């Protein structure tokens, strides 16, 4: 099946040779030597960041620990909950499954840059406004990931035209508090507003 703007790539995005090489490397927590770092320039929320990273540094960890972008949450760390969802070249992905070094040349957007990246220089993205209006969060841990996935889904006109398809596309984002009713209502409100703008 062809990838969609809201698909969740995992290690399958690496070649088998790259997967084998990654598996043999020491983990980032294991203290790989500083000699293994490589200089990488990441474009995040429209800004260039020159970083010295281990080859196996995970995008989620780099966003949080190196760049201080804490809106992207570490949930399951296995690509199953969606709390770490960011956009890479406009597609929603699980940052916990992406190697940071492989994102050089890509445009990465986190929740902190969502409104600006979508052309809303002043104020918030419609999905952010709708989440506030519909109280579509409880503890808030999953909220950024829910919004990032929803924004990517709503940019896909074929999917956004059908509420059932939107619900299906959001199934990779888990809300442990169970605020799904409000989340669906918020997405529907944002969907109508975004369609009205276009």
From TrEMBL:
<dbReference type="InterPro" id="IPR006058">
    <property type="entry name" value="2Fe2S_fd_BS"/>
</dbReference>
<dbReference type="InterPro" id="IPR036884">
    <property type="entry name" value="2Fe-2S-bd_dom_sf"/>
</dbReference>
<keyword id="KW-0408">Iron</keyword>
<dbReference type="Pfam" id="PF01799">
    <property type="entry name" value="Fer2_2"/>
</dbReference>
<keyword id="KW-0479">Metal-binding</keyword>
<dbReference type="InterPro" id="IPR002888">
    <property type="entry name" value="2Fe-2S-bd"/>
</dbReference>
<dbReference type="InterPro" id="IPR036010">
    <property type="entry name" value="2Fe-2S_ferredoxin-like_sf"/>
</dbReference>
<dbReference type="InterPro" id="IPR012675">
    <property type="entry name" value="Beta-grasp_dom_sf"/>
</dbReference>
<dbReference type="Pfam" id="PF00111">
    <property type="entry name" value="Fer2"/>
</dbReference>
<protein>
    <submittedName>
        <fullName>(2Fe-2S)-binding protein</fullName>
    </submittedName>
</protein>
<dbReference type="InterPro" id="IPR001041">
    <property type="entry name" value="2Fe-2S_ferredoxin-type"/>
</dbReference>
<keyword id="KW-0560">Oxidoreductase</keyword>
<feature type="domain" description="2Fe-2S ferredoxin-type">
    <location>
        <begin position="38"/>
        <end position="114"/>
    </location>
</feature>
<dbReference type="InterPro" id="IPR052914">
    <property type="entry name" value="Aldehyde_Oxdr_Iron-Sulfur"/>
</dbReference>
């Amino acid at each position: 099946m062809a990838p969609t703007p809201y698909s969740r790539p995992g290690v399958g995005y690496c070649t088998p040779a790259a997967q084998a090489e990654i598996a043999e490397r020491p983990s980032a927590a294991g203290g790989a030597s500083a000699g293994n770092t490589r200089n990488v320039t990441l474009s995040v929320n429209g800004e260039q960041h020159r970083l010295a990273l281990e080859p196996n540094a995970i995008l989620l960890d780099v966003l949080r620990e190196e760049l201080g972008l804490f809106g992207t949450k570490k949930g399951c760390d296995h690509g199953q909950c969606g709390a770490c969802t960011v956009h890479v070249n406009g597609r929603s992905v699980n940052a916990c499954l992406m190697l940071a070094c492989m994102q050089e040349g890509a445009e990465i957007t986190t929740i902190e840059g969502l409104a600006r990246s979508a052309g809303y220089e002043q104020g918030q993205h419609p999905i952010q406004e709708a989440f506030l209006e519909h109280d579509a969060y409880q503890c808030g841990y999953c909220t950024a990931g829910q919004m990032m996935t929803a924004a990517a889904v709503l940019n896909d006109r074929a999917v956004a035209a059908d509420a059932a398809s939107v619900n299906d596309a959001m199934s990779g984002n888990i809300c442990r508090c169970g605020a799904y009713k409000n989340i669906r209502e918020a997405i529907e409100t944002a969907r109508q507003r975004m369609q009205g703008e276009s």
